[in-house]
Amino acid sequence: MTQTQNDATILIVDDTETVRRQIQRVLAQETGLVGQFLEAGSALEGYKQLVTQKVDLVVCDVVMPDIDGFKFLSMVKGHPELAHIPVLLLTSQGDQESKNKGLEQGASDYLTKPFNEIELLARVRVHLKLKLVQDELREANKQLTALSNTDGLTEIFNRRHLMNTMTYEISRAARYASPLAFLLMDLDDFKSVNDTYGHQAGDQVLVSFCNRVNTILRRTDIFARYGGEEFAILLPQAKPSGVENLAEKIRANLANTPFDIGGQLVTVTVSCGIASYKEGVADTVDTIIKEADQALYRAKQTGKNRVVLSPHCLEGARVPDHED
Questions:
Q1: What are the structural domains, with CATH classification, of the chain?
Q2: pLDDT of residue 32
């Protein structure tokens, strides 16, 4: 949540208490501008407050013992969670070189002491407004990113995000020789559910199915809607036999627990195909998906409501159940 103009928190970093009090007095003159003031007598103390508290703007002196304002600024801008906080540098050094250095290192603005109170107030006001706009834009971009990666109906990941993540995880599996498994699932005869009860009821079943699966998965598993009533799970650090146990849990859950559709209990089953990363066999997005799809096809052809592993997944020792 972004700050509003009347609940902004300002951190004042200056080794002179009278200067800190003066800045606070000036900024407090405008009603609703600042909700809370924080003070620090050194750059290190100021940095510690930044990493532990929410701060919207910093007014910092340049000339301080031990760590000066320039070093403080580089520490702030080097921290990914603090880099967006505007920093106004304050110093008695009026030369252009010092101003340029501060601005080049990421300072939002620069004031020379003794500062003009009206100018200080005006610049803080401007930078708080800019911060508010930037926070709102950052939040909007986060929401857009989430929407672009999320299936609109089930609110799990979509195929686009799955493909991007697979590329990354395959690269990591190759580099570190770590296991990577892929599970492809298709709800059996789902067209009959839509035809009999309507597409709205079918959508409700899809949502309920995803909710059930999410209760079984680990936080690191990537669960995505692959298309229609077909779903996929990418499982880093999981071996095929462990994923077989996971798929069996999902299959049994559906087979043994009917869905309530308008007061009528309807059983929907699922067929599953499992593949895993193997160098030279299934080591690309396309080859892994192809192996899982072929395993899923065999599950369908041999009676549905079952789990089938691709041939190379059967190689090697069995491992414990997929764990949270």
A1: 9-148 (3.40.50.2300), 159-314 (3.30.70.270)
A2: 85
